[in-house]
TrEMBL record:
Organism annotation: Oricola thermophila
Catalysed reactions, as listed in the record: ATP + protein L-histidine = ADP + protein N-phospho-L-histidine
GO function terms (MF aspect): phosphorelay sensor kinase activity
Chief place of localization: membrane
Cross-referenced Pfam families: HATPase_c (PF02518)
The name this protein goes by in its record: histidine kinase
C-alpha cells in the first residue's frame, strides 16, 4: 500500500527532507556555537581573574608587627561596589587574618578546604552573596615576611550571572543569523532540487512528444542516474513497435483471408437473384456487407493502435478531395456539397485518420441531406474545429446522446452501415485525443463538429 506521503510530489518530499535536516543541523549548530562561546568566555574570564590574582599578589604588604595589607587595590570599579559581582579575598592561612573587597560587604567567600600548592591555580564554583553563584580562581603564594615565610591564599570570584547573561545575549544575537542562514540554505536546496530534477522534466516532455508523434525514442544523452530508465523505456517502445507491426500484419492477413469468401458470397447472391430468389440474395448481401464493414472497422482500429502519429496535416486539400469524391456518388445527385476551409489551416492528426474522420462524417451528411452539405473549419487557440452540416431532418437531442455512446449506431436495429462511420470516427478520436459533438446545423439538419489538436 502506497503511503499518502509517497504519492506527493518528489520535489516536495526532497524539500521536506532537506528542510528537516537543515533545521536539525542549525539547531545543533546553534547549541554548539553557544557552548563554544561559553567555553571561550569562561577561558577569557578565567584569564581576567588570574590577572587580578597576580595584581593582588604583587600589592601584598606586611607591617612591622606582621599585619597584612595591600599597597593598592585592583582598579576594577566592581570591586568597590557592594555586591557588584566581582570579589577578592586575601587570607593568611597561618594567622587566619583576611582582607576582603568592599563588594563583599559583610560576607566572605566560602572557599572549600582544599590543599593549595604554591603557584597552582584552583577553580571552584561556590555560593555567593544573595544566593548568587560564583566562579572562583584561587592561588596560594608564600611571601617572605622577614623572620618567617607567610602562606597567603588569594581568591578572586565573579558572579556567574554575568556569564549567563553574556551567553543568553550571544544566543539571542546568533538566532536571527541562523534563521537567515537557514532561509538562504533552503533557497539553495530548492535551486539544487530543481536542477537535479530537471532531467525528469525533460524526460516527461520527451515522453509527451513520443505520445504526440513528434519523436519516436528518448534521447540517450541524459545523466547516468536517469540513463537506465531511458534505456528501459526505449526498449519497451521497441517491443511495443514490434508488437504493433505483428498485430497490424495479422489484421491485414485476416482482411485478405475474408476478402475471397465475401466476394464468393456476393457472386452467389447475384446468381440467386438471377434465379428469382431476390429475398434470399438480399439477405446474403446484407450479411456480407455487415461482415465487410466490420472487417474495415477492425482494420482501422488495428492501424490506430499500432500506427505512429504523424505531423500536422493541411486540411483544405483533404476536404476538397473528399468533396470531389462525394460529388460522384449516387447519394449526392442533386445535392450541393461544399467545403469552406482556410488554406493554411492544419491539424495534428494522421492524414489517413483525418480522411477517415471527415469522409465518414461527410458521407453520413450526404446520405441524410435534403439538398446541401457544408464542410467548414476554423482554429480556436490550440484547437481546430471541423464542422459537417446538412439540411436533412436532423436528430433530436436525446438521440444524439445515444448515438455518441460508444458502440451505438444510427441505424442500430435496421439495415445498412450508416452507423459504422460514426463508430470509426469515435475510435479514431479516442486514440488521438479528439472530440465529437452533435448539434443542430445552421442549415436546419444535423451538425457534427470534430475537435482536433492544432
Amino acid at each position: 500500500m502506497i503511503r499518502p506521503f509517497a504519492r506527493r510530489s518528489l520535489r516536495l518530499r526532497l524539500m521536506a527532507f532537506a528542510a528537516g535536516i537543515m533545521a536539525v543541523t542549525l539547531i545543533v549548530a546553534g547549541f554548539g556555537l553557544t557552548a563554544l562561546f561559553a567555553r571561550n568566555l569562561e577561558r577569557r574570564v578565567g584569564q581576567e581573574l588570574d590577572t587580578h590574582v597576580a595584581q593582588i599578589a604583587g600589592a601584598l604588604r606586611f607591617s612591622p608587627d606582621g599585619e597584612i595589607s595591600l599597597a593598592r587595590e585592583p582598579a576594577d570599579p566592581r570591586f568597590n561596589r557592594v555586591f557588584g559581582g566581582l570579589y577578592w579575598q586575601v587570607t593568611d592561612t597561618g594567622t587566619g587574618a583576611s582582607l576582603r573587597s568592599r563588594s563583599l560587604w559583610d560576607t566572605e567567600l566560602a572557599l572549600p578546604d582544599d590543599l593549595l600548592a604554591p603557584g597552582v591555580v584552583h577553580v571552584h564554583e561556590i555560593a555567593g552573596p544573595r544566593g548568587s553563584s560564583l566562579l572562583v580562581h584561587e592561588q596560594a603564594v608564600v611571601v617572605d615576611a622577614g623572620a618567617t615565610d607567610r602562606r597567603i591564599r588569594l581568591s578572586v570570584a565573579i558572579d556567574t550571572r554575568e556569564l549567563d547573561e553574556l551567553r543568553a545575549g550571544f544566543a539571542r544575537d546568533i538566532a536571527p543569523a541562523l534563521v537567515v542562514a537557514g532561509l538562504v540554505l533552503l533557497i539553495g536546496f530548492a535551486v539544487q532540487i530543481r536542477a537535479g530534477l530537471q532531467p525528469m522534466d525533460t524526460l516527461r516532455a520527451a515522453i509527451a512528444d513520443i505520445r504526440a508523434g513528434r519523436r519516436k525514442r528518448l534521447d540517450g544523452a541524459v545523466p547516468s542516474e536517469v540513463a537506465p530508465l531511458v534505456e528501459e523505456v526505449n526498449t519497451l517502445l521497441d517491443h511495443q513497435e514490434a508488437a504493433m507491426l505483428r498485430a497490424r500484419d495479422r489484421a491485414a492477413d485476416l482482411a485478405h483471408g475474408l476478402k475471397t469468401p465475401l466476394t464468393a458470397l456476393a457472386a452467389d447472391a447475384r446468381k440467386l437473384r438471377d434465379l428469382g430468389a431476390a429475398e434470399i440474395a438480399d439477405d446474403i448481401d446484407e450479411l456480407a456487407g455487415r461482415m465487410r464493414v466490420h472487417v474495415e472497422r477492425e482494420m482501422a482500429r488495428a492501424r490506430l493502435r499500432h500506427g505512429a502519429a504523424a505531423p500536422a496535416v493541411a486540411l483544405a486539400p483533404a476536404a476538397a478531395a473528399i468533396v470531389r469524391a462525394l460529388e460522384r456518388t449516387p447519394a449526392a445527385e442533386g445535392k450541393q456539397v461544399a467545403a469552406d476551409v482556410p488554406p493554411d489551416l492544419a491539424a495534428r492528426v494522421d492524414s489517413d485518420d483525418f480522411n477517415e474522420i471527415l469522409g465518414n462524417l461527410a458521407e453520413n451528411a450526404v446520405r441524410h441531406a435534403a439538398s446541401r452539405v457544408l464542410i467548414s473549419a476554423r482554429r480556436d487557440g490550440d484547437i481546430v474545429r471541423i464542422a459537417v452540416e446538412d439540411d436533412g431532418p436532423g436528430v433530436d437531442e436525446e438521440r444524439r446522446a445515444e448515438i455518441l455512446r460508444r458502440g451505438r449506431r444510427l441505424d442500430e436495429g435496421g439495415r445498412g452501415a450508416a452507423g459504422l462511420g460514426l463508430a470509426i470516427v469515435g475510435d479514431i478520436l479516442a486514440e488521438t485525443g479528439g472530440r465529437l459533438d452533435l448539434g443542430t446545423s445552421r442549415l436546419g439538419g444535423l451538425s457534427a463538429t470534430v475537435e482536433l489538436k492544432a
